[in-house]
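Holo model, zinc ion. Inputs:
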Amino acid sequence: MIEGKCSKCGTLRYGWALLNTRYQTCPKCGSGLDIYKDGHLITKGFSPFTAKRIDVEESRDTPSSQMKDEGEGSL
Ligand SMILES: [Zn+2]
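Output:
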C-alpha cells in the first residue's frame, strides 16, 4: 500500500497514483507529501515550490483525455 502524508498539515492520501510526482502535492496546503510504501519512506514529496522542470516536459506527451490506471499488483 502506498501512502502519502503531508508533514505540514497531516493530510493522508492513499493509492498507487502517489508514485506519480503530479499526485505528490498536498491538496490542502500545497506542500509535498512524504510517500511511504509498506510503512517505509520511499520518497520525499513533490511540491510546486520545489519543482524541477520535469513537469513541463512531461505534460507534452501525456494526453489528459486518456487516463491510465495501471500498476495493480505490478509492484
Ligand atoms: Zn498539507
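The CA atoms of residues 55 and 61 lie 11 Å apart. Residues 54-58 form the longest helix (5 residues).
Archived with the compound record.
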